[in-house]
UniProtKB/TrEMBL annotation:
Protein name: Murein DD-endopeptidase MepM/ murein hydrolase activator NlpD
Sequence intervals crossing the membrane: 60-83
Keyword Hydrolase appears in the UniProt entry: yes
Gene3D superfamilies cross-referenced by the UniProt entry: Glucose Permease (Domain IIA)
Compositional bias segments (type: Low complexity): 404-415
Domain M23ase beta-sheet core: 291-385
GO molecular function, one term: hydrolase activity
Alphabetical keyword list: Hydrolase, Membrane, Signal, Transmembrane, Transmembrane helix
PANTHER family: L-ALA--D-GLU ENDOPEPTIDASE (PTHR21666:SF289), PEPTIDASE-RELATED (PTHR21666)
InterPro entries attached to this UniProt entry: Cell_wall_metabolism_enzyme (IPR050570), Dup_hybrid_motif (IPR011055), M23ase_b-sheet_dom (IPR016047)
Disordered: annotated span: 403-423
C-alpha cells in the first residue's frame, strides 16, 4: 500500500507552489517593465542601432535605486544627528538653568539662615537680660559636688567642625552653644537656690515634706492629674538631657520655694521693740527663772495682729495662760500661735495669707500688759521664732533687730523688761 501524505506536508507543498507562482509572476512583471530596447541614432548621415538589453536596464534601475536609498538614508541620518544634538543642547541649557536656579536658592537660603540666626541671637539676648533682671547674674562656674554638665568644650569642637564643613552654619552653631550654656547656668542657679533653701530649712529644724516641699523634687504625685501635653526639644519627640535636667531642677526649686513661703516670714505685729525674748528669763510674776516659749511684741491695745505665713486657722479660743488665742497651721507639724488677743478677726477653717489680720493685741490670760505672745511650734515643740523671721532675705534689718530677745548679740533691739507687757 502507498503511504498517503500527511495533511501538514500537503499544506507545506501547496504553500511552496503558491510562492513559486508569485515569484514567477513578479519576475514576469519586472520583465514587462524592462523589455529589450533598441535606439536608432543618426549621425553625419549614418544610422546606428543601439540595443539595450533587459538585464542592463535592470542593473541600471537597481543602481539608481541604491543611490536613491543611500541619499535618503544619509539625509535621514543627518536629520537624526541634528535632532539629537538639538535635544542635547536643550537638555544642557535646562540643566544650566536648574543649576543657576539652585545656586540662587542656596544663596537665598544662606541669606535666610543669617537672618534666622540674627533673630535667634536677639531673642536669646532678650531672654538673658530679662532673666538677669529678675534672678541676677546666673552662675557660669562649676563647683565641686555639682552634677550639672559643662558643654563648653564639646560646643567649641562642634563649632569648629560645623564652621569647617558648612561655613554658613557657623553662627547657628555658636547660637546653639550659647543656648546650652544658658540652660546649664540656669540649672546651676536653680540647684544652688534649692540647696540654700533646703539648708535653711534643715537649720531651722523644719522638714521640707511637712510644708509641701521635698529635697528631691515635687511633693508627691498622689493628688495630681490633668491632660497630657508632652514636651520635647527634638523632632523625634525626645528631650535633650540637659533640658530635662533643667526642668527637674526648676521643679525642685519651685517645690522648695513653696515650702519656704509657708514658713513664718512676716512680722506678726507692728512693734517698736520686743518686751521678752525666747528662752530663759525671769518670770514677770514669780521673778524666778523660767522658760519663755516665744517672743513678746509690745503694742497698743487693739493693734492688728498678722499671720506670719499662709496657712489655715485651726484654733480660735482660749488656752490656759495664753488667754484669747489663735493658731494657724502652715503644714503638717508646723503651727504658729498668737496669744493674749483682745479680739478675734478669723475663724477655724479660714485660709489666711501671710500678713493678713487675724486678731488684735490685748492682755488676756497671764499677762502684765497689752502685747502679742508669738510662738512657732514644730511637731508640738516650741521653737525660737527669731531665726524664721531672719531667714527671709527681704526681712529688713529693722525687723531683725526688733525681733531680738535678751539673749541676742550686741546691736539687737533693747529689752524693755518683763514688767511692761510680758507673760
Amino acid at each position: 500500500m502507498l503511504n498517503k501524505p500527511k495533511p501538514q506536508q500537503a499544506g507545506q507543498r501547496v504553500a511552496r507552489v503558491r510562492l513559486r507562482e508569485r515569484v514567477a509572476a513578479t519576475r514576469a512583471r519586472i520583465d514587462d517593465w524592462f523589455p529589450d530596447r533598441e535606439f536608432i541614432m543618426r549621425s553625419q548621415g549614418q544610422v546606428r542601432f543601439i540595443r539595450v538589453s533587459a538585464r542592463a536596464q535592470k542593473r541600471a534601475a537597481t543602481g539608481i535605486a541604491v543611490l536613491a536609498l543611500t541619499y535618503v538614508g544619509s539625509i535621514t541620518t543627518l536629520a537624526l544627528i541634528r535632532w539629537h544634538d538639538s535635544r542635547d543642547a536643550t537638555a544642557l541649557l535646562s540643566r544650566q538653568a536648574r543649576v543657576e536656579k539652585a545656586e540662587s536658592r542656596v544663596a537665598a537660603y544662606r541669606r535666610n539662615l543669617d537672618g534666622v540666626t540674627s533673630d535667634l541671637q536677639r531673642r536669646q539676648d532678650f531672654i538673658e537680660k530679662v532673666t538677669q533682671a529678675h534672678l541676677g547674674v546666673l552662675p557660669r562656674d562649676s563647683k565641686n559636688g555639682e552634677t550639672v554638665t559643662n558643654s563648653n568644650s564639646e560646643a567649641a569642637r562642634t563649632i569648629d567642625k560645623v564652621s569647617a564643613t558648612v561655613p554658613e552654619a557657623g553662627n547657628l552653631a555658636r547660637m546653639e552653644a550659647r543656648q546650652l550654656a544658658f540652660v546649664e547656668s540656669l540649672t546651676r542657679y536653680a540647684d544652688r537656690r534649692a540647696a540654700r533653701g533646703l539648708a535653711m530649712m534643715r537649720k531651722l529644724g523644719v522638714n521640707p515634706g511637712m510644708l509641701g516641699g521635698s529635697g528631691g523634687g515635687e511633693a508627691g504625685n498622689d493628688a495630681m492629674g490633668g491632660p497630657l501635653f508632652a514636651l520635647s526639644t527634638d523632632a523625634d519627640g525626645s528631650i535633650d538631657p540637659r533640658f530635662a535636667r533643667l526642668g527637674a531642677s526648676l521643679s525642685r526649686m519651685s517645690a522648695l520655694d513653696r515650702a519656704m513661703s509657708r514658713m513664718p516670714q512676716v512680722l506678726p505685729a507692728s512693734a517698736d521693740s520686743i518686751s521678752s525674748g525666747f528662752g530663759y528669763r525671769s518670770d514677770p510674776f514669780t521673778h524666778h527663772g523660767s522658760f519663755h516659749p516665744g517672743l513678746d511684741f509690745r503694742g497698743p491695745l487693739g493693734a492688728p495682729i498678722y499671720a506670719a505665713a499662709p496657712g489655715i486657722v485651726t484654733f480660735v479660743g482660749q488656752r490656759s495662760g495664753y488667754g484669747n488665742c489663735v493658731e494657724v497651721t502652715h503644714g503638717p507639724g508646723l503651727v504658729t500661735r498668737y496669744a493674749h488677743m483682745s479680739a478675734f478677726h478669723s475663724h477655724v477653717g479660714q485660709q489666711v495669707a501671710a500678713g493678713q489680720t487675724i486678731g488684735a493685741i490685748g492682755s488676756t490670760g497671764r499677762s502684765t500688759g497689752p502685747h502679742l505672745h508669738f510662738e512657732v511650734r514644730i511637731d508640738g515643740r516650741p521653737t525660737n521664732p527669731r531665726p524664721f523671721l531672719e531667714a527671709r532675705s527681704y526681712v529688713s534689718s529693722k525687723i531683725v533687730s526688733q525681733s531680738a530677745g535678751p539673749a541676742a548679740a550686741a546691736g539687737a533691739a533693747k529689752d524693755t523688761g518683763p514688767d511692761k507687757g510680758s507673760d
